[in-house]
Amino acid sequence: MVNVFKSVDELKKSLEGVVSLEGDIVKIVDEKSLRESKIDDLIYTAVFSDDYDLKEEAKYLIREIANEFGAVASSINGLYIAMGRGGTKNFTTPAVNIRGMTYDVARRMFRVAIKNNIGAMIFEIAKSEIEYTYQRPSEYASCVLAAAVKEGYKGPVFIQGDHFQFSSKKYSENPEKELKAIKELTKEAIDAGFYNIDIDPSTLVDYSKESLKEQQYHNYINTGKMTDYIREIQPAGIDVSIGAEIGHIGGKNSTVEEFEAFMEGYLESISKRPGISKISVQTGTEHGGIPLPDGTVAKVKLDFEVLMAIGEVARKKYGLSGTVQHGASTLPEEFFDKFPQNNCSEIHLATGFQNIMFDLAPESFKEEVYKFVEENFKEEWKDEITREQFLYKSRKRGLGPFKYQWWTLENKEEILEALEKKFEFLFEKLNVFGTKEYTDKYIKLVKVPYIKGSTKDVKQKAEDIKLEAGAD
């Protein structure tokens, strides 16, 4: 039975004999009891308590316990630099957006990693997902690190901010205000242990301009500003891995010439090194796939030549890890072993796993969620789309409001078994089995403590600011 603590005193008393708390020093005394039950109590308190100070204490202890245990929030930058210079085999790092049941789903990812000696995998959440899943960065990081402890995973844990995307509308109205908002979210994420950040001003590319460099101007200049900002605020001893994007997902396919125009401007604009470690490109996909009238997903034509050509230039000319593929989780299974063969260093996966959750959820619960979505997000239901298309696109809105119900579903184990099976299949296809040897070699573990109180004003900001970016 999982316990949500009612006070800090109760929490500390419960940990007596399990975790030693002496000032700022946290030591694991009884690992067996910690992993069997106490880590569950801590994460449920961090997520579901209504007491801010209690939640902060739980998050702090989870981070300190994880650091002590050896599951350390880390940057993948060192591995990606090695990949760029040919120091690894060909593989594509899976970056998984966990939208619901985060603690339990992360546990299944770690279970697959331990079984198959995987070091290269990323847990990520996009700017938009933070809003509709009700998961601020500190909560998400706590779920992932608690899951690592629960499963006995030791080594670097890569947590990533995905699509920290600029709104073209807000940017056109007030560029500095929009830049400030992205900086605030980035600082919140880094403070929480996100040492991998994907900056996305690709929405600001202006194809009406004559030259490619002019088209990419607002993209590269803001990526440069964010690079310098991240280098200023990152913890000592850590180079945050920074991703950039040249083609807005769902738009026209990217070209080598666009990439080189972007890099020319970007490298001129930054004053701090290192720069980006990877480049996201558009190959023909859309986030979440394209739903047909019956709610199924249309097959897409994916241009692997884009990944191959831009990835080759990225590695040979700029020393980057390669290209990044978004919107991939709903692609045909036979595609996935092609990504490592085509200079793709990272692939983002989300909606396919969400689909498994909804497909296997009890019908009565699912209809409750659908009713909520239909009543509260009518504006997203356009006249030209069917109910099935609307629900496929918008049912993600039911993840945050029903978070506790998702975490405690009666058939949760059935869903988790299906997800674990999918993780293992995809991770093998992406050739990341055995990559722990590379993370052991190239990633330095830097143990950074959680700063209690760093999210004091975040709750109000989340209520005041609607986050608009898209994700797979």
Layout of helices and strands:
Blueprint: H1 8-14, E1 19-22, E2 25-28, H2 31-48, H3 52-69, E3 71-74, H4 77-84, E4 93-97, H5 102-116, E5 122-126, H6 127-132, H7 137-151, E6 155-165, H8 168-173, H9 175-192, E7 196-200, H10 212-215, H11 217-233, E8 241-245, H12 256-269, E9 278-281, H13 304-318, E10 323-325, E11 344-349, H14 351-360, H15 363-376, H16 387-394, H17 403-407, H18 412-429, H19 436-442, H20 458-464
Parallel strand pairs: 3-6, 4-5, 4-11, 5-6, 6-7, 7-8, 8-9, 9-10, 10-11
Antiparallel strand pairs: 1-2
Helix pairs in contact: 2-3, 2-7, 3-7, 5-7, 5-18, 7-9, 9-11, 11-12, 14-18
Briefly characterize the structure.
It is built from 20 helices and 11 strands.
Radius of gyration: 21 Å
Whole-number average pLDDT?
A: 94
Instruction: Calculate the terminal CA-CA distance, rounded to whole Å.
Output: 34 Å
Examine the coordinates and then state which fold CATH places here, giving the name of the CATH topology of the largest domain: TIM Barrel
Order the strands across the largest sheet as they lie in space. Answer: 4-5-6-7-8-9-10-11
Strand content: 5-15%
Q: Which class of the largest domain in CATH terms?
A: Alpha Beta
Question: What would you say the CATH architecture of the largest domain is?
Answer: Alpha-Beta Barrel
Low-pLDDT windows of residues: 460-472
What percent of the residues sit in helical stretches (DSSP H or I)?
A: 40-55%
Q: What is the overall silhouette?
A: globular
Q: Describe the biggest sheet?
A: 8 strands, parallel, barrel
Count up the domains: 2
Structural class based on helices, strands and sheet pairing = alpha/beta
Give the tally of β-strands: 11
Figure out the total of helices.
Answer: 20
Q: Please, what is the CATH homologous superfamily of the largest domain?
A: Aldolase class I
